[in-house]
Amino acid sequence: VSTSYLQLAAFALGTVGWILCTISMGLVEWRVWHVNNTTIISSGIAWVGIWKVCFITYLHVSPGYKEQFCHKFSGYESSIPHEIYAAQGLLLIAMFLGLLGVTATIFALRKIYMGIIHKTLITRFFLVAGFFYILAGLCVLIPVSWNFYSVTHNQSIAFPPSYYMPSSPAAQEAGAAIPIGIVAVILLLLSGTFSLSYRFPVTANTTMK
């Protein structure tokens, strides 16, 4: 037990990182667009996520939407950047891998804290958990980097007319999902490193084969 403190920390960090990954995936505030024309986008601010775009409007632009209008990315649309669809897949993969990493860590820690000494099984599960955490972190890092690059270069998106969005903003900034994603990446990579660093203690009674 005394040799698995880092792996216990890996479980805590990995769990928080996985939760933050899930939160960032559900947020629409990836890119915050500032627009000059407030005829439809009343607040002058629109949010571009990886699943949908939203903005506040005081016009009845669509049935059922009187103040906040959201348009989901349904299916594949050629006008939507490919990195948005790639981000959807990568974050879903990251969420799944993070869950597998947490599960593998729980299994290994359960063996240790219940006194079930099985060197090969425990070591392998920590290794598997470490690889899952690191892969999950990389899967989050790619869409976070893409979106941050798009924000810093003020890249435009040719939205279809049904989105009621301008093709380019006057300015844009990183939304809350990007820093949350960055923290998730750091935590997942740390938890992966801690898991991979586990070494089964060698005692005097242990016979190495």
Give your account of this protein's structure.
Helices cover 52% and strands 11% of the residues. The protein is built from four helices and five strands; from the N terminus they run αββββααβα. Keywords: Cell junction, Cell membrane, Membrane, Tight junction, Transmembrane, Transmembrane helix. Belongs to the claudin family. GO terms for molecular function: structural molecule activity.
Main sheet makeup: 5 strands, antiparallel
Assign the CATH architecture: Up-down Bundle
Could you tell me the CATH topology label. Butyryl-CoA Dehydrogenase, subunit A, domain 3
Shape verdict: elongated
Layout of helices and strands:
Blueprint: H1 5-26, E1 31-34, E2 45-48, E3 52-56, E4 68-72, H2 82-113, H3 119-152, E5 171-174, H4 177-196
Antiparallel strand pairs: 1-2, 1-5, 2-3, 3-4
Q: How would you describe this structure in keywords?
A:
209 residues; single chain; 52% helix; disordered C terminus; alpha+beta; 11% strand; Butyryl-CoA Dehydrogenase, subunit A, domain 3
Quick description:
The chain has 4 helices and 5 strands, in the order H-E-E-E-E-H-H-E-H. The chain is an alpha+beta fold and 209 residues long. A 5-stranded antiparallel beta sheet has the order 4-3-2-1-5.
